[in-house]
């Protein structure tokens, strides 16, 4: 059985929604980040980076990185139809979107939520946060334009794990409070993904 180490509202949401979509048995193990459980030896033994999420596989090995976990699970369970196969023409765009989101939007969100970690001077945090807000809006704007032309999903009519990843990021709205009004095509994708029973189950646990 899979075990997903999660924290409510954290980057474990996308892997959890993917697990729900592929409908395999899995266990949720909550990590109390507010009390620093993710920095304790027991969790660091699973993920030395001390970040949420981590996933223990049925064979006992553990992996981390939310985008990697989503890609792995979608490939390991192709019957769920969450990922174009490596030979599929949609595969490059699928990988491009997940990697783009995890390499641009997600780090900008981290700079917003943990701005004090990105400066050695306490007064520097506000500027880092402000820059992150601007960058996050720029990235959402590009995603919105893509969806306007090619939506409703990142791969057009085809739903994939990339949309689940995009959905997770769209729920972090403190860093983009006007997302729903400014980026209506992102909102449309989020509404479609958020209405899926598997995603609803994930949201309930968060
Ligand atoms: N690169 C990691 C980043 C994960 C990450 O930063 N997770 C946050 C929660 S959303 C976390 O663990 N925060 C606790 C901390 O950094 O102290 C991934 O994509 O899985």
UniProtKB/TrEMBL annotation:
Top-rank taxon: Bacteria
Domain GST N-terminal as annotated: residue spans: 1-81
Gene3D superfamilies: 1.20.1050.10, Glutaredoxin (3.40.30.10)
Chain ranges of the GST C-terminal domain: 87-206
SUPFAM superfamilies per the UniProt record, alphabetical: GST C-terminal domain-like (SSF47616), Thioredoxin-like (SSF52833)
Name of this chain's protein: Glutathione S-transferase family protein
Source species: Dongia soli
Classification lineage: Bacteria, Pseudomonadati, Pseudomonadota, Alphaproteobacteria, Rhodospirillales
């Amino acid at each position: 059985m899979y075990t997903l180490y999660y924290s409510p509202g954290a980057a474990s949401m996308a892997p959890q929604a993917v697990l729900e979509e592929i409908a395999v048995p899995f266990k949720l193990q909550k990590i109390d980040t507010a009390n620093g459980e993710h920095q304790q030896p027991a969790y660091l033994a699973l993920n030395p980076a001390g970040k949420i999420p981590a996933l223990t596989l049925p064979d006992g090995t553990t992996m981390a990185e939310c985008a990697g976990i989503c890609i792995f699970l979608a490939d390991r369970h192709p019957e769920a139809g969450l990922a174009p196969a490596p030979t599929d023409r949609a595969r490059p765009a699928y990988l491009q979107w997940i990697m783009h989101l995890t390499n641009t939007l997600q780090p900008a969100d981290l700079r917003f939520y943990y701005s004090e970690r990105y400066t050695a001077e306490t007064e520097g945090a506000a500027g880092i946060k402000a820059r992150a807000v601007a960058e996050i809006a720029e990235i959402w704007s590009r995603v919105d334009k893509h969806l306007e032309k090619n939506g409703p999903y990142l791969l057009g009519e085809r739903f994939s794990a990339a949309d689940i990843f995009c959905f997770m990021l769209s729920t972090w709205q403190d860093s983009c409070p006007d997302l729903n009004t400014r980026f209506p095509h992102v909102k449309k994708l989020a509404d479609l993904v958020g209405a899926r029973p598997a995603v609803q189950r994930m949201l309930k646990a968060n």
